[in-house]
Design goal:
Layout lengths: L10 E6 L48 E5 L28 H13 L4 E5 L9 H8 L7 E6 L4 H11 L3 E6 L4 H8 L4 H13 L3 E2 L3 E2 L6 E4 L13 E4 L4 E3 L8 E2 H6 L4 H13 L25
Parallel strand pairs: 2-3, 2-9, 3-4, 4-5
Antiparallel strand pairs: 1-5, 1-6, 1-8, 7-8, 9-10, 10-11
Length: 304
Amino acid sequence: MLWGRRVVGPVCAVFTQRGRVHRSCARGAEKTWAMHSNSDVEDMPFRQTSKEFPLTDTFGRKHTYLRVSITEKCNLRCHYCMPTEGVQLTPKASLLTSHEIVTLARLFVKAGVTKIRLTGGEPLIRPDVTSIVENLCKLEGLSTVAMTTNGVNLARMLPSLKHAGLGHLNVSLDTLVPQKFEFISRRKGWHKVMEGIEKAIELGYKPVKAYKIPGSVGQIAFITSMSQHFCSSCNRLRLTADGNLKVCLFGSSEVSLRDALRSGASEEDLLVIVDAAVKKKKKQHAGMFNISKLKNRPMILIGG
C-alpha cells in the first residue's frame, strides 16, 4: 500500500540477469504462512495422466511455472500481511527439506515446468537458500530460476546467489520513504533494501519492467492480481513450505506432496497426484471481496 493512496499490492523492482522480459508475480507468495492445512482434493482416483502435456487442466491451460515457498518466516511485520507478534509456524519437521524441494522440482520440470520462482515468507531467511538455487539450476529443462524477496538481506547474499545461477529477481518495496517503510513494515530496513537493489544493478541484474520515471535508472510495477483477473492465461502452480500443492494461489484446495513423497510414492504416482489436482483447477479464482470469506491460506491475513 502506498502512503495516502490505496492500491492493491506492493511496488516491486523487477530485475533479470539475462535481460528477458517476464511477467511480474503476485505478492501472495512471499507473504503466505501455513496456519493450517486443509485439502479439498480428497480421495483422488489414481489414473493415467494425459498423453498430452501432463500439467494441462480442463480449460486447456498448460502449467509451466511453479512457485515454491521455501519458508514461512519473515523478518518484516507488514500491517497488511502479518500481526506484530507473528503467526504460529509449522514445526520444522513438517517443512520440506532442501532435498525434497529439489526432488519435487525435478518432477515438475520433467512434466513441463520451465520456470521456478522461490518465495516465502522471506526466502533469504532460509540458511540453505543458495544451495537450493544451485541445485535447481542443475535441473535439465529448467530455463529460469527466479526469486521474490523483501530485499533486507539481499546485498549480503546476492553475490553467492548469482554465482549459484539465480537469473531473475523481484524486490518488493512498499514505499520510497524510509519513515513510511518503518511504519508499514514495523521494522527498520529501508536502507538495506536500497543497498540490495544497488547491489543487483552492480551485479548486472537489469530492470526490465513496470513503470519508469523519465530520467531515472529504475522501474516499478504495481501488483494488481487480486483486483484484475488473468485466470484465462494462468500457467502457475504453487508448492507451500510444508509441501502442499495449490493449483490456485487464491483457492483453498491443497494436496500434500510431502506426505506422498515421505510415504514412498514413486515419481509416476506423484505425477498422477499432481495431474489429478491440476484437472480440478477452476476456471477463475474468487473475486477480490469473496476471498475474505474463504477458509484458506490467504495471500494476506484478511480479517485476522
